[in-house]
Structures are given as structure tokens and as C-alpha cells.
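Re: weekly structure request thread

Next one in the queue (633 aa):
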Amino acid sequence: MARIGRSRKTGKAERKPDGQVRQSQLLSTYGAGAMIDLVQHAVLVQGLDSWSYRGTERDDGVFVEEPRLKDKLQEKYRIRLEDEHYFRRPPAGTDDEPHPGLGIRALEFPANFVCQACRRLLHRRDLGDAVTSDGRRYHARCDKGDKSGRNTVVPVRFVGACRRGHLQEFPWRFFAHFGRESPCEHGQLSLHEGISGDFNDIRVRCTCGASQRLADARAEHVKLTCDGRRPWLPPEVDLEKCEEKLHLLVRTASNGYFALQLSALSVEDPDNVIRDALTGDEVRIRKRFEKGGDRLANFLEDDHEELVEKHGMEAVLAQAQLLAQGISVQRPGIRSGEYLQLTTHAEAIGSDAPVDESKPFVARRVATDAPKVSTVTLVHRLREVIVQFGFTRLEPSSADLQGEVDLGVTRAPLGAIEDWLPAATLQGEGVFFELDQAAMAEWGQRPAVLARQQELAAGWTKWHEDRSRGGDTKKIPPFLGMRFYLLHSLSHLLINSIAMECGYSASAIKERIYCGPLDEGGREMSGILLYTGTVGSEGTLGGLVQQGERLTHHLRRALQTGQLCSNDPICGAHTPKDDPTDRLLEGAACHGCLLIAETSCDKRFNRSLDRALVVPVIGQPAGLSFFAREDFE
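Done, posted below.
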């Protein structure tokens, strides 16, 4: 949207943007299909089919490559991506000359308005010139208006949505006359809000006498069915068959849009190094393969000489043939591959060694005397690729231990044809450490831990049962396990501790939890990566990496702080069993001890935390904690 303004320099009329959105927000809060409130308008971000790069398609800065993410999206979520240019940064607009052919288009939505004086419900399309715009706001003819006989109208703040991601105008006329044989066709609707703004105080009325409270739209006896509308997609694919219940949704409500994201660190996959090196050259490899094995071998020898010298022609040729035939390779889970790099393949060298800035991932292991910590890795340089591959409405999806989205809900598409997806890269640094496996195994078998596990697992099940649609227990994700609760809680304690000295605020530090099975051999991951970075920046200043060399100091301070909470003994003695406050996913955790900025939390929204698993706390048996008092005193 744009408005007409005056240039400060020339005084001439010029188009000004009506609002701004950062490129990184186009992968989360304001992605394709999201509703946005601008200064004077309400809009809906259009799908990928309407994202225009206007001549920047050949700019290498637009395209992002991450083979591990591409393979996972195709394998797990059945999204067929292009061989090349499968991830792209969102296009940038311009404040100087907003133009429909540049950047991302937005559709005005909803088209129903409310008169600020008489409270009439008006539809801009049906009323024609009864509603006019001055470039900044809309006006309608109104008896209660100013001397010109008109008054300001604003977009109605309610729309209709379903759990499949569909979005439409709320059926005001049908709802106002619900329970009658048929709605009147010519009555004038109006929307009257009470003082509180509560749904019980809002009524939609018709001049024929029909009236309904807005709260009744959520009642079981009111049957409103979704039309299957997807207005962010092109008109030819807008409509989809749907029989879901239509829900009344406030446009600005937080449950109106949940972005589905997948992220990965740009690390080498040890088992697929050859394949990754060939990725991006699929088109030329396929053409040579179709002309015969000799042509393909000659091509590899000329264009991938270093790869052939390092791994041998036989191995490179075999992978090229699989790539040409479109045969996917088996990759480990996203976090399993990263964990192997951080614990096994990171170079164990002195801390004064130079950093190779040409690589997206530079890490080295260092010695440590931290209690019950087996590995510390300083990540001098990392690159995280974040991809949005869809969204949901009304209810969010959950993530498994690999950080991969578990689609217990229906994914809404970002475009009519999803052969590429929007992505962003984050350049930063971090500190990784791994807890001792033997100590973890011994702790997990303690009677106090097993008893606590039953309480937390029961709370997990009840929480998801209460929120599952129609009580469908098949959609309840598996319990994350005690290892995750321990690692997650320890991570939050450390973020608050390290933030005091590293030069970054606690909200700027993110966590990445490595937990769950590593491979088919039954090995378990037990690591934490604390990292920072900014989308679009070239890197960081090294303050977080330096704190990794003082991990023992930070760990001891975090454990000492975690012993006591300002809300103890209530916090320390908390259990999800029979909790009337609905805190069914937490043990000993509250705002006074473990909760941090949700942007830092690893897709868990400050849930699945229990301080009592980390350190001895008031009201819990001492054998429950992984660390004993002698570990940090």
C-alpha cells in the first residue's frame, strides 16, 4: 500500500509507503498469507507467485544454498524444489518509488468496513462509490458524518479462518440471521461494540430486527462452514474444497499466523561431502549423463578436478550418476549431522590458531575442567539457514528432537507452485558443550528421576489432550524425555549467566538443543549450542566465543543461581500433577528463574523446563538433580 505525500526537497506529490516490514519478518510474523495492520489499511501478504525481484534473479545475493535443508524438505514434507535457486531471500522494496512490479504485493483484506459514526457494516465492492478513498483512509456517506455528509470507515477487525489455513470474510449476514429460515437480502447490518470490547458485548444487528452476540459464533450449536478460500494465492487456485468449521478470528490475534520454519547450520555432512559439492550443478550433470558415462566422467574431471583428486573418480562418478537420476541420498537428521561435526569433526587445536574466514563453519574443540562436561567446542564462525515452508492458523505445530516440524496440523502453502522457498541466513558465533554420557546414563536411572518422569509425562499428555481437536489422542506428540528437560533448563540458566559478561543481551543469545537418538547404533545426543548472530550481517565480534573458554566459571555461577528462585518455595515444589493453573509442561520453572525471551528459546515457547533436574532446589529430593552441590561450590 502507498499513500500520496509531498517531497521535502521539491514539494511535488509523490507516493510514500504506508508501512514497512523487515525482510527477516517475511519468514515469520508477516510471511505469505499473513495479515498486517498498516497505518490506515489492513492488508494480506500475497503468496510467492506475487513476489517480484524485478531483474535481481541473476543476483547471487538473492539465492541461498543449503543441500541438507533441501533434501529434508523434499523427503519429509514432499515439497518438490528446483534443482537450482531453490531458496531465495525475500525481495527488497524501495521507499523512493513503491511500485507493484517491485517487492511483495499486498491485497487489501478484509473488504468489510465499519463506519465510525453510525456503526454500519459496509462492503467496498458492493457499494461502489458509496465508499471513497483519499489515498490515506476510506470514507462513506453517513447521516452522522461531517458537513460533507461522510464519515471515516475502518476495516472490520474480525475475519473467518479454519484449521487448514483458509481465510475469508466473516459471513456477517448469515450469522446475524442464524436460526431464521433465510436471511433478509436488503437489510442494513451494523456492528455495535460495548465498553469492554468483550465478545459478549459485541452484537451484529440488521434493520429487519435480527441480532446476534458475537460470542455465539464460538458456540457449538452455531454451524459455520469454511468456504475454502485462500486469497493470498492467484484467483485460479484461490478456492479449495473444505468442510472444516469456520472460526471467528481477530485479525491481529497471535493465533492468526504460525510460520512453519526449518533451520540448519551450514556444516559438512561427512557421509555426503561429494554429493553436496555437486549440488547446484545438477542440470549440466544430467545433460552429460544422458549422453553417456564417458561424457559425464570427462565433465567431472574438467569441472570438478579438486573433488576428483580428493575422493577419486569412482566415488565422484557414482554420486553424480545418482544425482542425475534424481535418486536421493540418505541423510541423518538435521541436528544429528551438526552434532557429529561439533563433537567429532571439529578440529582439536590450540585456542590461538587462526580462523579461516572463507568457510561458513569454523569450530575447534578445547580442553575443559567443567564438572560433568566431556566436550567444549568454540564455534568461531557459523552460518544458519532458516527456511519457511508453509504456515498454520489457529493452532501451531510442534517440533521433534531434531528440530524438524511435526505436522500434526495441515500445512497451508506459500504459493500455488512451491518450486522455491523464502530463506534467510544468519552469520554468527557460538559455544557448544556436551554433557558426560556416563553421568547422564546414571542420572536417568535414579528412582527420583524416574518418579519425576512419570509426573512430567502425565502433564505432557494431559496438556496435549486438552488442546487436541475433538480429543484426538493420535495427534499427541511423544514426550520429549528427561534428557531434554535437563538440557533445556540448563541452557536457560547459562544464557542468563553468560549474558552478564559476553557483551550481548540475553535476548540476543539463542539456544540449540541436541538431544535424542544420534544414529541407529543407539547413541544419544546430550549437547547445547549457545550462539548469536543477525540476519544479513557479516558476523559478530567474538565476545561469545571468548566466554566458552571460561565455561567452568559460567556453569558454576549458573548452578549457584539456579538453586534459589525469588518465588521459592512455591516454584521449587511445583509439579504438573493436578495443577489448577494449567502449568502442565513445567516442573520448577517460572519468570523468576528459568524463563527467557521466547526468541531465544529453541521452538519451545518457554515450556518443558524443570530447574529441579539441574540443581538441588527446595521441596525436591536431592537425588533428582544432575549436578550435586559439590560440583559448583
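The CA atoms of residues 54 and 584 lie 50 Å apart. Residues 334-407+426-631 form one domain.
Next request, please.
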